[in-house]
Amino acid sequence: MHRTHTCGELRREHAGQTVTLCGWVNSYREQGKELVFVDMRDRYGKTQVVFYTDDDTKIDGVARKLRREDVVKVVGEVCYRGDGLVNSKLATGDIEIRAQQLTVLSKSKTPPFEIEGTELPNEELRLKYRFVDLRRPELQKSIILRHNLVQAVREYFNTRDFLEIETPMLGRSTPEGARDYLVPSRVHPGSFYALPQSPQIYKQILMVAGFDRYYQIARCFRDEDLRADRQPEFTQIDVEMAFVERDDILNTIDGLIAFVMKKIRNVDIQVPLPRYTYRDVMERYGSDKPDLRFGLEIVDIGPVAAVCDFGVFKGVMSSGGRVRGINAKGAAEKYSRRLLDVDLKNFVGDFGAKGLAYMKVVGDKLESTIVKFFTEEQQREILTRMDGKDGDLLLFVADTPKVTNAALAALRSRLGKELNLYDPSQFQCQWVLDFPLVTWNAAEDRFDAEHHPFCQPNPEDAEFMRTDPSKVRADSYDLVVNGYEAASGSVRIHDSEMQQVVFDLLKINPEEAEMRFGFLLEALRYGAPPHAGIALGLDRWVMLLAGDDNIRDVIAFPKTQKAADMLTGAPAPVDARQLKDLSIEVAKLPEK
């Protein structure tokens, strides 16, 4: 080994020992002509090294030529710094190394940015030089956190009779949502593999095969539009169990979350986690992934709006819409008329709302340009419904149910942040249950699966399967953490006839079903047990645990929002011979 210790290991008790350290030059400074100080860094920490001019070795001359990010090897004696000279900001701050030998293992070009600079350059530059960016302590902590999380997950499942089983990367394209990433076959010209969007079908087949407790740290791929918390390739903690019902999955994952939070953050999580229905959270928060670290529940004032003289409210109610609002407690003086009439109005407009009405509570009365359209009795009812008190700001959106949900959910999240209504370090986890089985796709005149086509319909809703499918609940569930969907799953259909009933709802006829999912349907005909499962987004969990809001910061080599790898230049053209081997001809794209 080149080194005897790491740069974060040495303490006062090591004083007097001769050690060898290897690492990067983190900083360099001279103290006159007598001393040279170098802070060496590796992923374990930093150690100060001192070079003296009166040493016979004359290594201070070499030390004076060192620059940041040079890789060096130092042999020296561990010395206690002395009372009053300890650096309390460093774990190794009690000691320093008096250098006896110095070897420059590698010289560095001037880095494109400072590793510990106060201001970071643009993200594309950092991704291009990711090998430098990953030296930043913040990123290293996130990558180490990711490792620790994976180890904790494996420890939890391995002690509960689960088997970690790998499923194929090259499979059949079964488009059911996002676009597949396709891989051409050289051996079968004109045919393609697809990279897995998830191991969904394979893990169901494993249940049919008798492996009743499966998990996998699974790589998944989806060719879809990206955002800060989404990547084209991502990692799931994939879980499936046979001979279980919904509560068995929920209780198992409750235990996992409690175990992980204790192991990673030393936080005790109370289980079972709270459980809400989809209908309940949509009504109260306008979103199926609400952040419950704060209140700001949405309130319906429809009965008042329907009979008032305010034309906008009354017209929306008569056309089947809804009038709902939020009470921003104590915020009446924090939002000026301009903020309300322009900024917040435009904000909800981005979610389809045509306007934003507001009233301020002054004493026990309402003040607004629209208050004159409401009788005193109607105003009192609004105050009662909204729990309005002096200093409160009441905000209303009048529109279709879908628009009021979207606009008020977004407004609620914005207000929660702007009004500092929650502790950013707090973790709030809850289950959302009973999602709709299907949603209507007006553009294609058919139903789409809310989650995926393999969710078990709730038996209590069997009567609606043929009469009104929109009322059918799926036996499905999402785990929501701080406003993010952190896991999603369902009880699976294990009967091939019921599977075809659901396919019929989705206008997937038996011939198409056999073509797309024939291997799963055939497996279900050979004695399939009742089974259920879930997938947790590993990248998103690391992001949440790290207190970050950008998923790229917790992935070693992420893609940009345009799915480009700035480090390697992927995706990139390939030469003509490779295309010929794959029987592919690239069409000439029209000029931009």
Can you describe this structure in just a few lines?
This protein has 592 residues and is α+β, with helices and mostly antiparallel strands. Helices cover 29% and strands 24% of the residues. A hairpin with a 2-residue loop joins β2 and β3.
Question: Please, could you describe this protein's structure?
Answer:
By secondary structure, the chain is of the alpha+beta class. It has 17 helices and 22 strands. The protein has helices at residues 59-63, 123-128, 130-133, 137-158, 200-208, 246-265, 278-285, 302-305, 311-318, 337-349, 376-386, 401-418, 464-467, 496-505, 510-524, 538-546, 576-581; strands at residues 18-31, 35-42, 45-52, 71-80, 95-106, 163-164, 182-184, 192-194, 213-221, 233-242, 275-277, 299-300, 322-328, 357-362, 365-367, 393-399, 429-433, 438-441, 446-449, 476-481, 484-491, 531-537. The chain has an 8-stranded mixed beta sheet with strand order 6-9-10-22-21-20-17-11, sandwiched between helices. The longest helix is centred in the N-terminal third of the chain and has 22 residues, at 137-158. It is globular and about 95 Å long. The mean pLDDT is 93.
Strand order of the largest sheet: 6-9-10-22-21-20-17-11
Shape designation: globular
What summary fits the major beta sheet?
A: 8 strands, mixed
CATH top level assignment of the domain at 294-418: Alpha Beta
Average pLDDT over all residues: 93
N- to C-terminal separation?
A: 56 Å
By DSSP, the count of extended strands is 22
CATH topology of the domain at 294-418: Gyrase A, domain 2
CATH architecture of the domain at 294-418: 2-Layer Sandwich
